[in-house]
Design a protein that fits this description.
Elements lengths: L1 H14 L1 E3 L5 E3 L4 H18 L6 H15 L12 E5 L6 E4 L3 E5 L9 H16 L2 H17 L13 H7 L14 H17 L5 H17 L14 H18 L19
Parallel strand pairs: 3-5
Antiparallel strand pairs: 1-2, 4-5
Helix pairs in contact: 3-4, 4-7, 4-8, 5-6, 7-9, 8-9
This protein binds zinc ion.
Length: 273
């Protein structure tokens, strides 16, 4: 039985292996259409379960930054318009999903001082989507599932039994509102890809370094240790800041100041009700 599992795993790896833009080997077992559908469905669930900000100035600011970023994302990543929603929550968090969905929590706007720093956040999140990180995570879950149940599954294909499993793969967590941390390699890749993307979109890539310094300070002062996207400890803030600083030699070449939008951050971000 062990041999069969190894053969099965090897077959999957051979048929679904490709590389990310930074040259990392990837295993992707799902189609873009499947991922888009999961992303859309998870986003609808989020919208049902989490309060949405009605503050016009806050929404305008986030929409302005997000649209500057998304117009520089290849149509092969998402064909239609991106949907951007500001969630009224004190959590320091944001996410992007396959299917062209972006969620920004009002809590993160207290950490991002400028449009450039929010550009760094959204660039990073969209970077996870560009590089198919959800597909990889779901595929890893699926291979694990096959390993466990191969003996009883004749065809060798295991479908996810419930929505919680794929929502976890997308990073949405089982309880709504909890964004699961990505792996260290996914985080590093999203940092690099995101920094290039923000630069091309007219945001100063140096702001990504300042952002993570702010994030480290916020983390230290608030004592927040929730396993959220931005509070996860891998890579550590220091590693992250170092890598982002080093990559500036590349991203500064893409920095297109003429593209810089004029997104006005509201003086007051209303506290969640
Ligand atoms: Zn991330």
């Amino acid at each position: 039985m062990k041999f069969q599992i190894i053969m099965l795993s090897a077959l999957i790896v051979l048929t679904a292996c490709s590389s990310s833009s930074t040259g990392r080997k990837q295993i992707k077992l799902f189609s873009s259409a499947e991922l888009d559908q999961m992303g859309e469905s998870s986003f609808e669930e989020m919208k049902k379960n989490t309060a949405i900000s009605q503050d016009k100035a806050t929404n305008d600011f986030v929409q302005c930054v997000a649209s500057a970023i998304t117009k520089n994302v290849a149509k092969s990543v998402h064909q239609g318009d991106w949907e951007v929603v500001v969630f009224d929550s004190a959590q320091v968090n944001a996410f992007a999903l396959p299917g062209g969905k972006i969620g920004v929590y009002t809590g993160i706007l207290n950490v991002t001082e400028t449009q450039d720093q929010l550009g760094a956040i959204i660039g990073h999140e969209v970077g996870h989507v560009i590089e198919h990180h959800s597909n990889e995570r779901l595929s890893a879950n699926k291979i694990q599932g096959i390993g466990m149940t191969a003996a009883t599954t004749a065809a060798g294909m295991v479908e996810f039994e419930n929505k919680d499993m794929w929502m976890a793969g997308l990073g949405m967590g089982i309880q709504y509102g909890l964004i699961m941390p990505y792996s260290r390699s996914h985080e590093s890749e999203a940092d690099i890809v995101g920094q290039d993307l923000m630069a091309r979109s007219g945001f100063d890539p140096k702001a990504s370094v300042k952002l993570w310094q702010n994030m480290a300070a916020f983390s230290a002062s608030s004592g927040q240790t929730a396993p959220a996207e931005f509070m996860s400890t891998h890579p550590s803030n220091e590693t992250r800041i170092k890598q982002l600083s080093e990559h500036l030699s590349v991203s500064m070449k893409y920095y297109d100041k003429n593209q810089a939008p004029n997104c006005v951050k509201p003086k007051i971000i209303p506290k969640p009700a």
